[in-house]
Amino acid sequence: MESSKKHIVIIDDDPIYQRIIKFLAQRMVPDYEQHALLNAAGASQILKKLLKRGEQVYVLLDLNMPEYDGWRFLDLTEKASWAACSQLKLFVVSSTTDTREIERAKEYALVKDVITKPFTKENLNYILGYAS
């Protein structure tokens, strides 16, 4: 049974960026639950739990973080059976302007798109409207 509950999971080591996303989300989609992580280490457990309940999850993933970064998360999540579901919408949101990194991120089947910071309300509208 699919739940109607929706979540935004922010995985980024920049607390200011996290506050911006939370602020935008609270104003634009106050009924969405928000989860903010400073690195990707605990993200898999949270995502597995939410997806198992059939809930819609939008992930905003930074690539370059200390310790457990977005690249490692993508490598491990790409192989996980729980990640192959339509309720998961994963977007890379990064400050990188390196076209090689952007193209590399787009090679992951899980990545719906790559968005370059600074993040705007138009970016959030685009992500939340992403159907497939």
TrEMBL record:
InterPro entries: Bact_response_regulator, CheY-like_superfamily, Sig_transdc_resp-reg_receiver. The modification 4-aspartylphosphate is found at residue 62. Keywords: Phosphoprotein. SMART domains: REC. The keyword Transcription regulation does not apply. Residues 7-132 form the Response regulatory domain. Transmembrane segments: none annotated. This is Response regulator.
